[in-house]
Design a protein that fits this description.
Blueprint: H1 13-26, E1 31-35, E2 38-42, E3 53-56, H2 65-78, E4 84-87, H3 93-101, E5 105-116, H4 134-145, H5 152-161, E6 166-172, E7 178-187, E8 190-198, H6 207-221, E9 226-232, H7 236-244, E10 248-257
Parallel strand pairs: 8-9
Antiparallel strand pairs: 1-2, 2-3, 4-10, 5-9, 5-10, 6-7, 7-8
Organism: Pseudorhizobium endolithicum
Pfam family, one: Rv0428c_C
InterPro entries: Acyl_CoA_acyltransferase, GNAT_dom, Rv0428c-like_C, YpeA/RimI_acetyltransf
């Protein structure tokens, strides 16, 4: 199987649709509403942009832009969230032009990468077995991300809502201090790596390679053929690591917010 990747700057739209679909299942929002082909994702407990955004999924669906954005704004405000839109290659160009004309701005760009698991050189055995302790996994994740421990119930809600098989990977030192963490979601022949993080004081010591190798090996054993992940474009250390593993660009998406 060849590596799944985009074939043009606009992206391979069938591939984009498939990766978007598995991405939604891998990181499920509490509430999902459709306005035509626009997916409106909201989660009252967790502030993640991926859980609180409008995602247009059909380049031809650009009717009544101002009205539909206003309806979405009211929904977001009812959740106490600012209206945020995620632009993938599936977004109508007319919508993006409208946002620009209305003073909206892009504020983050994320790369979606894929790799052929069959071609990766991975250990024959798992250095790290996946954990089933969701509570501990959440504690480690929040600690490494420097996020509010008060988000634990909201993150637990997200993780327990994931339907496909999941592998929770953690590395801690002898005293139990968190060093690295990764979540792998295996959805048929696709496996997504999410929440990948290494302690700032422990980077460039092989921990990222170790935990990523274990997650990908577990995914391959579980039947996945292609791995995917998402990374912000300015995270150069993570991008360098992923490139070493053979990950290649599939497409990019952008977040937009109002002025």
């Amino acid at each position: 199987m060849q590596t799944m990747q985009a074939t043009s700057p606009g992206g391979n739209l069938p591939l984009v649709r498939r990766l978007e679909a598995v991405g939604f299942r891998a990181w499920p929002a509490a509430t999902v509403i459709y306005d035509g082909s626009w997916q409106i994702r909201l989660s009252g407990g967790h502030p993640s942009k991926r859980l609180n955004c409008v995602v247009p999924l059909d380049p031809s669906d650009h009717r009544d832009l101002a009205l539909r954005l206003e309806k979405a704004r009211k929904r977001f405000h009812s959740y106490g969230r600012p209206l945020t839109l995620r632009e993938t290659p599936l977004a109508p160009p007319q919508l993006i032009d409208h946002l620009s004309q209305q003073g909206w701005s892009r504020f983050e760009t994320v790369k979606v990468l894929t790799a052929n698991l069959a071609q990766l050189e991975l250990p024959e055995t798992l250095d790290r077995l996946p954990s089933h302790d969701i509570g501990r996994f959440i504690d480690v994740s929040l600690s490494l991300a420097g996020e509010d421990p008060g988000l634990k119930p909201a993150l637990a809600e997200v993780l327990t809502a994931i339907k496909p098989p999941t592998g929770l990977f953690m590395i801690e030192n002898a005293e139990g201090a968190p060093l690295a963490v990764a979540l792998c979601v295996q959805d048929n022949d696709l496996a997504g790596v999410l929440g990948f993080s290494v302690s700032a004081g422990q980077r460039r010591q092989g921990l990222g390679t170790e935990i990523l190798s274990s997650a990908l090996r577990w995914a391959r054993i579980s039947g996945a053929r292609t791995a995917w992940l998402q990374v912000v474009t300015d995270n150069e250390p993570a991008l360098a690591l992923y490139r070493k593993f053979g990950f290649q660009d599939a497409y990019e998406y952008h977040y937009w917010r109002e002025a």
